[in-house]
Amino acid sequence: MIIATTHKNTDFDALASVIAATICYPGCVGVIPKAVNRNVAQFLSTHKTAFNLLLPNEINSAEVSRLIVVDTNQWHRLDRMDELRHRDDLAIDLWDHHMTGESDIVADRVCREPIGATVTLFVREMIKRKIRINALVSTVLLIGLYEDTGHLSFPSTTPEDARAAAFLLENNADLNVAGFFLNPPYEETQREVLFEMMKNTEKLTINGNSLGINIITLDKKVTDLASVVNMYRKIINADAVFVIFVNSSRSMVIGRSNSDQIHIGKIMAEFGGGGHNGAGSSSIKKSVMSPEKIKTAILSILAKDQEKTIHIGDIMSFPVISVTPDTTMREVRELMDREKIRGVMVIGEEERIEGIIVLWDFKKIRKERQWNSPVKAFMVRNVATLSPETSPEKAAQTMIEKDVGHLPVVKDGKMIGIVTRTDILTYFYGLLPD
Ligand SMILES: [Mn+2]
Fold first, then answer.
1. Which biological process terms from the Gene Ontology are attached to this UniProt entry (predicted)?
2. Distance 13 CA to ligand 1 centre (A)
């Protein structure tokens, strides 16, 4: 007997991958853990009989000759598979996309890659082997793919995930059904927790990233805390959030990040958990570490990461070309032509930034003789500046908010460099400045 199984608190990517495995491996039976996410439970209550699925207590582990593990690589995350763990005659195949955390399942065949969703790995197999799937299977696979990639929007999404979505849509995946299960309505208990989080929000900035961190005591069961945390991050508009949910015996940490600089999976791995760049979690016994200690530890990991991350000081241009306030507009224009630049800083006494003049400001000149006027008559005063520790993301955000293309970098009151749109584009897209 071949069985495919996945992690407890089964999400749609896990369910979809189990179902995909039952199709890719002839004769394979899917074994779904008893504890599944709420929207997965809703789906199963109406669709279960359409698939070849059983519960862990419905199989006889002595009959299992091959085990397919999907969307996890850790034994303790499986439901009642301990008897199989110590069998040395068991063949194991592993399909997963979690790259952090300790992997302890030793498989004979491993398909483990950084990709948006595990189910994409199975879709690749289906395309390769020209396996046809019906609309129902396509739909559940698409739900798994969309849930794990945030509808192909999470930074972990790869081109292959998008191609997998195309394949599933070609095979008649139903977006109405998918939309229904991907956007479950919020429950009263979830709203209460969200409200509690909003009340106790501690917002801070570490390494140029805005951060929300909370400790929340749970006195009752709340389903799908992960999507509450997701919602919370969006509402408080933080680059990353960490929420430590505490019950009588354990702390459950859920992290979400929208910043390239904060890798949730790596941070959670330090607490025995795991996840991806953008999302992850960890469960810690209170006797091992108190919630307050966890919080302090997360903050110190984030602070330590500072040395490794890119700051604006690393990507700025220098030396900065500048003129004095009395330089004529004609001289400024000649300088900009010669240096092929779009803006020049105006620096006064004691190296003070007096203003900036950009190509656009030349449009203010109406009469020829104005070219003899000093730059201080045309420059823009009130120049927005950055500190060298600013993150490239924050710098880009400042450019958008202030609608400026030049941001001088200032340290101890002195200008040490400048960041232009070209620097930002070069950083984000690896484009070479022209
Ligand atoms: Mn997954």
1. tRNA processing
2. 5
CATH 3.40.50.300 fits 188-308, yes or no: no
Å from CA of 238 to ligand 1 middle: 24
Residue ranges, comma separated, of all CATH 3.90.1640.10 domains in the chain are 2-182
Going from the Cα of 96 to the center of ligand 1, the distance in angstroms, rounded, reads 7
- HSE at residue 174, side-chain half, CA atoms within 13 A, is 9
**pTM surpassing 0.90?**
no
pLDDT in tens, 98-142: 998 788 999 999 999 999 999 999 999 999 999 999 999 999 999
Stretch(es) of the chain classified as CATH 3.10.310.30: 188-308
275 CA to centre of ligand 1 in angstroms: 9
Distance 190 CA to ligand 1 centre (A): 23
Q: Give dist(CA 356, CA 323) in Å, integer.
A: 9
Query: CATH 3.10.580.10 region(s) of the chain?
Result: 313-429
In the reported structure, the alpha carbon of residue 12 is separated from the centroid of ligand 1 by a whole-number distance in angstroms of 8
Give residue 86's Cα distance to chain centre. Answer: 36
Calculate how far, in angstroms, residue 141's C-alpha sits from the geometric centre of ligand 1: 12
DSSP codes, 201-247: -EEEEETTEEEEEEEEE-SS--S-HHHHHHHHHHHHT-SEEEEEEE-
Query: For residue 94, what is the enclosing H or E element?
Result: strand 91-96
Three-class SS state of 413: coil
In this prediction, residue 434 carries a pLDDT of: 44
Statement: residue 307 has pLDDT above 70:
no
- Residue 215 amino acid letter: I
CATH architecture of 313-429: Roll (3.10)
Report the separation in Å between the CA atom of 177 and the middle of ligand 1, taken as the mean of its atom positions.
Answer: 20
Cis peptide bond N-terminal to 319, omega within 30: yes
- Look at residues 147, 149, 169, 174 and name the one whose alpha carbon lies nearest to residue 159: 149
Nearest to 362, CA basis, from 336, 396, 389: 336
Ligand 1 centre distance from Cα of residue 105 (Å)? 17
pLDDT band per the 50, 70, 90 thresholds, residue 367: very high
pLDDT at residue 120 in the model? 98
Cα–ligand 1 centroid distance for 222 (angstroms): 21
Centroid of ligand 1 to alpha carbon of 217 (angstroms): 27
CATH number of 2-182: 3.90.1640.10
Q: Which conformational region is residue 409 in: left (phi greater than 0), alpha (psi within -120 to 50 degrees), or beta?
A: beta
CA distances from 221 to 39, 240, 245, 246, 276 (A): 16, 25, 11, 11, 25
